[in-house]
């Protein structure tokens, strides 16, 4: 018996990076995983993995900045599977540009994708979860909601908004037995981990840079059926970096 046997899990931005690994972890646990991504197809390595999965997994072209795309996507899942159990709001992007030069159109694009998209996906999923004895929503935020590098205003604002949205929706959806939590990753290397420098790892109190698997395991934890006492929280996964005091020599 797998932990997520026949549960329906949506992972936005699941075609690559952290989202891809999250999707794989749920598939390993028997879930029916639906990947939403703007890219036409998941990468080949993801497709090969899914062919070996014991449960059905699909990939749909969904633009989460388009509300109607989200509604149509949710209705298609409901028609096919009859329910939605878990939503992982992972899709997001960043535009790093000086605050003096950032056009409002690019600001809106980041906010519409990261924050508004998270709200719209959560709202539409919750409409279906409440008629299926509840469900779980996990929003992928960032440590950039808590601390910043230069020229990340739009990204930081969107991720900070996701944290506020998380605790607000946790309260609003509690009566419908829907938990809503956030995860704030720090440095998670999604490319070639072997090319990282020793100093990259050593600066982390944990002694290493993060991996997508670290975030995927946290998603499984927060959506575990026995962890329904956890809601409205933000789980920071950054190897301790946001707790480290740094002074110049």
Strands, helices and their partners?
Layout: E1 8-12, H1 17-28, E2 32-37, H2 44-52, E3 57-61, H3 67-81, E4 86-89, H4 104-129, E5 135-140, H5 153-172, E6 178-185, H6 198-202, H7 212-222, E7 234-237
Parallel strand pairs: 1-2, 1-4, 2-3, 4-5, 5-6, 6-7
Helix pairs in contact: 1-7, 3-4, 4-5
Could you tell me the mean pLDDT?
A: 93
The proportion of residues forming helix, as a percent range, comes to: 25-40%
Query: Order of strands across the widest beta sheet?
Result: 3-2-1-4-5-6-7
Give the total of beta strands: 7
Q: What overall form do the CA principal axes indicate?
A: globular
Q: How would you portray this structure in words?
A:
- With 249 residues, the protein is an alpha/beta fold.
- The protein is built from seven helices and seven strands; from the N terminus they run E-H-E-H-E-H-E-H-E-H-E-H-H-E.
- The chain has helices spanning 17-28, 44-52, 67-81, 104-129, 153-172, 198-202, 212-222, and strands at 8-12, 32-37, 57-61, 86-89, 135-140, 178-185, 234-237.
- Strands 3-2-1-4-5-6-7 form a seven-stranded parallel beta sheet, with helices on both faces.
- Helix 1 packs across helix 7 (212-222), helix 3 (67-81) packs parallel to helix 4 and helix 4 runs parallel beside helix 5.
